[in-house]
Amino acid sequence: MNWEKMKSILVAIGIMIGIMLITAILVSQVFMPIVFGKGKLVEVPNLVGKDLKTANTESADNQLHISEASYVNSDQFAKGEASYVNSDQFAKGLIISQQPSPGTKIKADGTISVVISKGGELAMVPNVEGLAVTQAFSRIKNAGLKPVVKDSLQSDQVEADHILRVWPTPGSGLTPGSSVYLSISTGPGAVQPEEQKPSSE
After folding, report:
1. Less CB within 10 Å around the terminal CB: N or C of the chain?
2. Are residues 57 and 81 in the same domain?
3. Which pLDDT score is estimated for 74?
């Protein structure tokens, strides 16, 4: 066997070994993780107290993501979704809790489920127009709101010491503890005495 032929065989073997090595690398680093889900592990960031935009950015930086939000009033986690619930501790739009918890190691390209605050429960302004002041105050306080007397006005339709007007409009939703302003009737105006005609005597 001459040298040229041997050289060709060695080159062919080298090429085959190179192809085998490249194939092995592709299989172990690319195809195996996809097929068997054995990607590298990354650490879950702490998203509590952050808005969804910031959370998405930090998740992407850690090769993770939060899927599109599902607007449900539940504190039950759905995998990779965001639930929206009322909260008095966290402002509207901030993340209350997350799953998996911060510091947990999960596979890259995994998802994080979060619960996002919708803000506190709203208190509804009760309709107290025409009620006595004491009764109106009681209903407003029971609704979680603060009654405030704005002014007192004369009225021919509403008797004295009864509610003439309410602001905001009854049925409006307010943050608990907000003020409800009242106008109280002082009753009809004073009746003017009839002018006395001079005597014809």
Report:
1. C
2. yes
3. 38
